[in-house]
Please model this.
Amino acid sequence: MTVIERVRAGDADGAARELAGLTPAQRRDCIAELKEVRREIGEKWWLKCDVLQALMVAGAGCHTAASAAAWLSTGGPGFRQDDSWDQPALLTVIESRPPEWRSALVAKLAERRAASWATRKYQLLEHLVLTTGCDVPTSDGFVTHWFPWPDLDVRVPPQRDRRRDR
Model:
């Protein structure tokens, strides 16, 4: 089966396996058909969640880092749902890309407006920051999701009691 056939069948893992054997040019050749599948899903995306997840995986594997960030963030309402960002096939495809590509993806995804962030999107970015060694994004969206984590070990100096300083 081809990448597109795997996507249409809703097989995200199979799409990831098919992508592994493609050259960059062959991956680029899939983009037009992936866009067509995205249009076909339309407004009833919740009826085809498996196809949507496979589409998310294939799109991430076929685009440049900047285009993949746009694809993952604006590919329709289902792409923004919190349950798709941590699927193993997506991580497999992203981790198969060179570190420079992954670092660029982090930077581009972190630039997206904070309102579109899902917790699992943040966790994917955090994972990529840790595994690539790229700079930690300083965008509002990333910082907003980074700061409130309860297990975060941030040493903040206690507030000084100004009354005692008089």
In short: The mean pLDDT is 80. Residues 24-41 form the longest helix (18 residues). The two ends are 77 Å apart (CA to CA).
